[in-house]
Amino acid sequence: MSLESAPVASSTLLDLLEVEQIDRNLHRSVLVFDEPFALYGGQVAAQALLAAGRTVPGSRLPHSLHCYYLRGGSAARPVLYRVDEDRDGRSYSARRVTALQDGEVIFTMSASFAVARPGADHEVEAMPDVAGPETLPEWEFERMWSMQARVPPRRTPATPWPSLFWARSAIDLPDSPLLHACVLTYLSDTSSGLVDVPGGAEWAGSTLDHAVWFHRPARLDEWVLVDLLPQTVAAGRGLYTGTIRRTDGVTVATLAQESLFREPPAGASLPRI
Questions:
Q1: Of 159, 258, 242, nearest to 204 (Cα)?
Q2: CB 229: neighbour CB atoms within 10 A?
Q3: Helix (H, G, I), strand (E, B), or coil: what is residue 211?
Q4: Reduced to 3 states, what is the DSSP secondary structure of residue 209?
Q5: Burial of 157 by CB count in 10 Å (0-12 exposed, 13-18 middle, 19+ buried)?
Q6: At what angle do helices 177-188 and 41-53 cross, to 10 degrees?
Q7: What pTM, to 2 d.p., does this model score?
Q8: Which of 103, 174, 192, 212 lies in the 20 to 30 Å Cα band around 183?
Q9: Tally of CB atoms within 10 A around 25
Q10: Neighbours of 188 (CB within 10 A)
Q11: How far apart, in whole angstroms, are the C-alpha atoms of residue 208 and residue 65?
């Protein structure tokens, strides 16, 4: 597969996430854009997980990932993903991924994959009481390829970016549990940082670190509920946690993310819902 430069309108989520293998444990993003966009962190994490997942047996699926964002990247240039095969045990596989652009490390990930095992399966927290996605108007996901969103009425306090919303892929996805986990990872970075905290600023800058724990399988071309909660702001950093649930209320993933937290730059305009 050759490197492509494509207009935004013609690209799908499957095009965006694809990586090609160019050597053993070395992959490269396929799609780049002529426009000078910043590289979306969820895209990098999803591509890194896809590259890592292709080095483990198909019966082993992601159960956690931990990322560090070290430098900003550009969507107009390809990203190289180097996968280190740290360990393959009887049930678990551990991988590290280093993402490079223009010869510099921009991102690292540690990911773990496991064989599904039978055992206890129950929920501690109940599903939030929210309207179903089919009853809500569409909300536009800015620069999110092939994704649909529905936003329930605001909670209190309101947030400039939705902290509770339904989402799904607008295109049918293949029957690949690894790919669906990658799409969930892509989605998990959507609301990074733009949260109101009483008495604080309401602007967050670059993501510092990000973690996702995968509890149960889910199809991401079906609706999932993303529920994000700001936790604390201190020392110039803001932390939020969140869950992603299926429509039946079952939690499929838990996430945590920390971002730089700064006062809004002069003249900055924050999105409102």
A1: 258
A2: 13
A3: strand
A4: strand
A5: exposed
A6: 160
A7: 0.90
A8: 103
A9: 16
A10: 26
A11: 14
**Residue 94: what residue type?**
A
The tens digit of pLDDT for each residue in 209-224 reads: 999 999 999 999 999 9
Q: How many CA atoms lie within 13 A of 235 on its CB side?
A: 2
| Cα 3 to Cα 23, 82, 156, distances in angstroms | 15, 17, 46
**pLDDT per position as a tens digit, 125-161:** 889 899 999 999 998 887 788 999 999 986 655 555 6
Distances (CA, A) of 176 to 58, 60, 185, 268, 271: 10, 12, 14, 40, 34
> DSSP state, 40?
P
- The position carrying tokens 């970016």 is 161
What distance in Å separates the CA atoms of residue 8 and residue 132, rounded to the nearest whole number?
A: 30
Residue positions annotated with a catalytic role: 189, 207, 257
Closest to 97 measured CA to CA, from 89, 106, 88? 106
User: What DSSP element (H or E) covers 142?
Assistant: none
DSSP string, 79-112: -EEEEEEEEE-SSEEEEEEEEEETTEEEEEEEEE
By CB atoms closer than 10 A (0-12, 13-18, 19+), residue 54 is middle
Please, what sign has the CA dihedral across residues 52, 54, 55, 56? positive
Q: Is 197 helix (H, G, I), strand (E, B) or coil?
A: coil
Instruction: Count the helix, strand and coil residues of the chain and give each as a percent rounded to the nearest 5.
Output: 15, 40, 45
Please report which confidence band the pLDDT of residue 4 belongs to, taking 50, 70 and 90 as the band edges: low
Angle at 269 between CA 76 and CA 267, to 5 degrees: 100
Rounded CA separation 195/201 (Å)? 9
Measure the CA–CA gap between 89 and 92, rounded to whole angstroms.
5
Out of 36-40, 60-64, 105-109, least confident range: 36-40
